[in-house]
C-alpha cells in the first residue's frame, strides 16, 4: 500500500504531537511501506513558517534529512496532477490540499489526513483513532 501524508499529519509526526492517531503513527513509522510527501505539502509548510504561523521541532532546511531518515519519498507535481486539482469540485478551497487530492486521485494513493473533505473527492484516507 502507498500513502501520501497531509501537511498537518507531517507536522504532527515531525513534532511528536499526540494529535497524530495511533494508526497514522504506526503507518508513518513502518519502513516497509511506501510513504510519500507532496512537494505541495513542503511548500505549504515553508510558507507557514515564513509567515510566523508555524514552528517545527527542527529547522525547515533539515526537513529533507528527516524525511530520508523516516523513509519518505518526495512526490513531485506533474501536469496530470495539476489538471486533476484544477477541475475538482469546490468542496475545499485550500490550494495545497487540492493539489494533494489531485495527486492522490492520479496516483491512486491513500492519504493520511484528519481532513474530512478529502473523502468527498473519492480519495481513500486513513485516520482511525
What is the strand and helix layout of this fold?
Blueprint: E1 2-5, H1 7-15, H2 22-28, E2 34-38, H3 39-50, H4 63-69, E3 72-75, H5 79-86, H6 95-107, E4 110-112, E5 125-126
Helix pairs in contact: 3-6, 5-6
Shape: globular
At the first level of CATH, the class is Alpha Beta
Order of helices and strands: EHHEHHEHHEE
Kindly report the average pLDDT value: 95
Supply the CATH architecture.
Answer: 3-Layer(aba) Sandwich
User: Roughly what fraction of the amino acids lie in strands?
Assistant: 5-15%
Number of DSSP E strands: 5
Number of helix segments?
Answer: 6
For the record, the count of structural domains works out to 1
Protein described:
The chain is an alpha/beta fold and 129 residues long. The protein has one domain (2-126): Rossmann fold (3-Layer(aba) Sandwich). It has 6 helices and 5 strands. The protein has a 5-stranded parallel β-sheet with strand order 3-2-1-4-5, sandwiched between helices. Helix 3 (39-50) runs antiparallel to helix 6 and helix 5 packs across helix 6. The radius of gyration is 14 Å and the shape is globular. The chain starts with a strand and ends with a strand.
Question: What are the main properties of this structure?
Answer:
Rossmann fold, alpha/beta, 43% helix, 129 residues
Provide a short characterization of the protein structure:
With about 130 residues, the protein is an alpha/beta fold. The protein has helices at about 5-15, 20-30, 40-50, 65-70, 80-85, 95-105, and strands at about 1-5, 35-40, 70-75, 110, 125.
Amino acid at each position: 500500500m502507498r500513502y501520501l501524508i497531509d501537511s498537518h499529519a507531517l507536522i504532527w509526526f515531525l513534532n511528536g504531537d499526540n494529535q497524530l492517531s495511533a494508526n497514522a503513527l504506526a503507518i508513518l513509522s513502518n519502513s516497509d511501506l511506501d510513504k510519500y510527501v507532496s512537494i505541495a505539502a513542503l511548500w505549504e509548510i515553508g510558507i507557514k513558517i515564513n509567515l510566523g504561523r508555524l514552528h517545527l521541532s527542527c529547522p525547515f532546511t533539515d526537513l529533507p534529512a528527516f524525511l530520508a531518515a523516516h523513509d519518505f519519498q518526495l512526490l513531485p507535481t506533474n501536469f496530470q496532477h495539476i489538471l486533476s486539482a484544477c477541475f475538482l469540485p469546490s468542496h475545499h478551497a485550500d490550494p495545497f490540499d487540492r493539489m494533494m487530492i489531485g495527486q492522490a486521485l492520479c496516483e491512486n494513493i491513500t492519504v493520511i489526513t484528519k481532513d474530512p473533505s478529502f473523502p468527498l473527492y473519492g480519495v481513500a484516507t486513513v485516520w482511525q483513532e
